[in-house]
Design a protein that fits this description.
single chain
């Protein structure tokens, strides 16, 4: 399986750990992975679209960390990045697992670092399902 991972650098102490766990899981499961690094969560959907358009990937993973601040910006970033990820998946017909954490604080994000590995498992499972459906024709 060929897996593309788009990883946001924003909130890097958390984001880098998410990516590390995702890459370890991909290796453990025998998937070849390529990582694209982007500045923040709002840039993830466009980078996913670019990867999807290459036709080189069986599945994609979105990774990032959005921590609530004192303004409404948190809701915009959390909602729009999630919507963008889903839009790309449906538009391209490619499994994309959303591993973008949206938490109230850094402690909650630290407690959810395994979501990177979980996103890899979900993406690969969906890619296998897609492959099986194609073979059953």
């Amino acid at each position: 399986m060929r897996l593309g991972i788009v990883a946001s650098r924003f909130n890097d102490p958390i984001a880098s750990k998410l990516l590390e766990r995702a890459q370890a899981e991909a290796t453990k499961l025998g998937a070849q992975s390529q990582v694209l690094s982007v500045p923040g969560a709002l840039e993830i959907p466009l980078a996913l679209q670019w990867l999807a358009q290459t036709g080189r990937f069986d599945a994609l993973v979105a990774l990032g960390c959005v921590i609530r601040g004192e303004t409404h910006h948190f809701e915009v970033v959390a909602n729009e990045s999630a919507r963008g990820v889903m839009d790309v998946s449906l538009e391209c017909g490619l499994p994309i697992a959303n591993g973008i954490l949206t938490t109230h604080d850094e402690a909650q994000a630290e407690a959810r670092l395994d979501k990177g590995a979980e996103a890899v498992r979900v993406a690969l499972e969906m890619a296998q399902l897609k492959r099986k459906l194609s073979e059953d024709r």
